Amino acid sequence: MAANPSFDIVSKVDRQEVDNALRQAEKEMSTRFDFRGTGAEISWAGEEAVTLKAETEERVKAALDVFKEKLVKRSVSLKALDAGDPRASGKIHRIDCKIIQGIEIDKAKAISKKIRDEGPKGVQAQIQGDQLRVTAKKKDDLQAVIALLKAEDFGIALQFINYR
After folding, report:
1. Are 26 and 32 in contact (CB under 8 A)?
2. 52 - beta bridge partners?
């Protein structure tokens, strides 16, 4: 007998797409007239963090908007970007952004509770590290769960993979 149909719920971001968006934002900021002479720059600050710098708070916010626009064009959800508030350090204003990967345990519990409470009967969700595995007896029930979760906002970007 075959195993029950299942799929995984994950929150992952393609780092290459984020890198491409960062490079495009960097290029646009170097050519745009309103960024000339403002010291605006964007760069990686570690594996999952991006730093934006400029001489004024207004320009660093504009640089963040350019970066967000490039992320959207590359199909990266803005829910995966956790941008901090602008802060001054000397003459430079900076914004530190974190790229969110994985589902935190409290969000995983909320998703699991939502599936239990409002999902079809016989659907089970198990937390496996930073992802969830959802199983059911029928594929139609799994599709109903996907529709239910897409309608809800958990504050993170969700992807549904390994549908079998």
Report:
1. no
2. 42, 95
pLDDT digits (tens), the chain, 164 positions = 457 899 999 999 999 999 999 999 999 999 999 998 888 999 999 888 999 999 999 999 999 999 999 999 999 999 999 999 999 988 899 999 999 999 999 999 999 999 999 989 999 999 998 999 999 999 999 999 999 999 998 888 899 998 88
Return the SS3 of 88: strand
The whole model's pTM is what?
A: 0.85
Contact 59, 75 (CB under 8 A): no
Dist CA 156 CA 82 (whole Å): 10
Please name which of 8, 13, 4, 14 lies closest in space to residue 128, comparing C-alpha atoms. Answer: 8
SS3 call for 50: strand
Phi first, then psi, for residue 131 (nearest 5°) are -145, 170
Q: Which of 48, 6, 4 is nearest to 160 (CA)?
A: 6
